[in-house]
Amino acid sequence: MADKLHFELVSPERLLFSADVETVTVPGAEGDLGILVDHAPLVALLRPGVVEVQAGGKVTARLFVRGGFAQVTPEGLTVLAEEAVDLATVSKADLQDKLKGAEADLAASADDNQRIRAEAQVAAIRQVLEAA
């Protein structure tokens, strides 16, 4: 019996994380889920939030996901994220600059479609900024 959980986080762009870990906490739609080795099979809808990876008794990675699915199988945990960001790779200053630009785009929106896209972008950047 393995003492580690194999965890992979996949976004549409790429495989963002793959490692054998002790535990992973994912933001389930109905509450946070703690996944350890030998967890029962599961498929869960994810809400926007932070996935925390633990190995060696400490948090080793924090990854923001904007929805998706988590699947637990005998082989491990796979998170299929709609969008994902490794929080160790983002700077709050860069996010704040992006937020200002997105807010300016929102203010300059000429039609409903532009406004809807700009509002979604502003909300997405704010979620990552709050998690960082």
TrEMBL record:
Q: Does the keyword Metal-binding apply?
A: no
Record's SUPFAM superfamilies? Epsilon subunit of F1F0-ATP synthase N-terminal domain
InterPro entries, per database record: ATP_synth_F1_dsu/esu (IPR001469), ATP_synth_F1_dsu/esu_N (IPR020546), ATPsynth_dsu/esu_N (IPR036771)
Record keywords, A-Z? ATP synthesis, Cell membrane, CF(1), Coiled coil, Hydrogen ion transport, Hydrolase, Ion transport, Membrane, Transport
Q: How does it sit in the membrane?
A: Peripheral membrane protein
| All copies of domain ATP synthase F1 complex delta/epsilon subunit N-terminal, residue ranges | 5-84
Subcellular location(s) of the protein: Cell membrane; Endomembrane system
Alphabetical GO CC annotations of the entry are: endomembrane system; plasma membrane; proton-transporting ATP synthase complex
Keyword flag Ubl conjugation: no
**Coiled-coil annotated spans:** 92-119
| Gene Ontology MF term list | ATP binding; hydrolase activity; proton-transporting ATP synthase activity, rotational mechanism
Instruction: State the HAMAP family in the record.
Output: ATP_synth_epsil_bac
Q: Per the similarity annotation, which family is this?
A: Belongs to the ATPase epsilon chain family.
Q: How does it assemble?
A: F-type ATPases have 2 components, CF(1) - the catalytic core - and CF(0) - the membrane proton channel. CF(1) has five subunits: alpha(3), beta(3), gamma(1), delta(1), epsilon(1). CF(0) has three main subunits: a, b and c.
- Give the function comment from the record: Produces ATP from ADP in the presence of a proton gradient across the membrane.
**Can you name this protein?**
ATP synthase epsilon chain
What is the scientific name of the source organism?
Zavarzinia compransoris
